[in-house]
Amino acid sequence: MFDIGFWEILVIALVALIVVGPERLPKLIRVTGLWIGRAQASLHAIKTDISKELRAQELKDALNKTNQTMSDMNQTIHIDERLDEVKKTDPPEEIDKKDG
Is 79 within the bounds of a domain? Predict the structure, then answer.
């Protein structure tokens, strides 16, 4: 999480030992560990929530695209049905221009 190595941890521990003292250092380490654990858990929960929201948005987009395709197909079917109706009707009789 923090990308610190052994030597950095050793320096931090020595400074903490000097500043806090040997009596309170174990308690400080426990409290620090608890806070780091809570921060990691919160970060994990946030990442999970963001992933769920992104997935939900992707599903909504896919659903909208599918609905648009269905609408286009319904319009095409409606046009085809109208065309079939027009084909079934008798064509108007042509007026014989010779008789007129």
Answer: yes
| Containing structural domain, residue 69 | 12-85
Please report whether residue 96 resides in a domain.
no
Please give the single-letter amino acid code of residue 23: E
Q: What is the SS3 assignment for 20-89?
A: HCCCCHHHHHHHHHHHHHHHHHHHHHHHHHHHHHHHHHHHHHHHHHHHHHHHHHHHHHHHHHHHHHHHHC
How many domains is the chain partitioned into structurally?
Answer: 1
Nearest alpha-carbon partner for 9 in 1, 27, 38: 1
What are the φ and ψ backbone dihedral angles of 92, each rounded to 5 degrees? -65, 145
Tens-place pLDDT, residues 20-56: 898 998 999 899 999 999 999 999 999 999 999 999 9
